[in-house]
């Protein structure tokens, strides 16, 4: 019987890629639960991401901090999705980004060693990881186009179509940073654009 806190992970993995039952069990068995307060830093820039997370509750963000302490929000994660600094995790190299919780969060986590030990034993897990990485890359490239080519209003509308709930969960300054627009312009969009 699957523990209740892991059921969402099992369901998510089954929907992500067609694994055999024993492969799903091998992938999900090492995950542990954790609860963290808001504004908890899970990954510090310059350190190597050792864990991958699955979000049960709460919102997190990865962000870059430049030499002048200017922040750029890279991504938001929320239920029911994976979280963590993916490039650092997959390459086991230092992260250029921080990962923090924006709200109190309940997460499942597993380590690089455990995930890749399971992938070494089960080709289906290896294929699932490749599949998930390819889709993450596709999303990152599409987001790059949004940042480079879309107007501020188009960026805002696209985000609201994809993740409208963020508007009520995340401080607006982080959403403005994610969209690559000034906080004042974001406030104007918020008051003028009908969603």
From TrEMBL:
Coiled coil: none annotated. Residues 35-121 form the Cyclic nucleotide-binding domain. Gene3D superfamilies: Jelly Rolls. It comes from Taibaiella chishuiensis. This is CRP-like cAMP-binding protein. It holds the Pfam family cNMP_binding. InterPro entries: cNMP-bd_dom (IPR000595), cNMP-bd_dom_sf (IPR018490), RmlC-like_jellyroll (IPR014710).
């Amino acid at each position: 019987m699957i523990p209740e806190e892991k059921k969402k992970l099992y369901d998510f993995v089954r929907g992500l890629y067609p694994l055999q039952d024993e492969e799903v069990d091998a992938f999900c068995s090492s995950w542990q639960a954790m609860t963290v307060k808001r504004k908890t830093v899970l990954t510090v820039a310059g350190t190597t991401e050792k864990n991958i997370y699955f979000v049960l509750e709460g919102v997190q963000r990865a962000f870059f901090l430049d030499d002048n302490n200017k922040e750029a929000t890279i991504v938001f994660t929320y239920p029911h999705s994976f979280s963590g600094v993916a490039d650092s995790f997959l390459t086991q190299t230092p992260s250029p980004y921080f990962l923090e919780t924006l709200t109190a969060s309940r997460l499942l986590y597993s380590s690089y060693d455990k995930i890749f030990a399971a992938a070494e034993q089960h080709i289906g897990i290896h294929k699932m990881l490749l599949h998930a990485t390819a889709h993450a890359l596709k999303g990152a490239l599409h987001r790059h186009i949004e940042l480079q080519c879309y107007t501020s209003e188009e960026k805002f509308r696209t985000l609201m179509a994809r993740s409208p709930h963020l508007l009520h969960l995340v401080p607006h300054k982080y959403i403005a940073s994610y969209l690559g627009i000034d906080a004042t312009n974001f406030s104007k969009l918020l008051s003028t654009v009908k969603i």
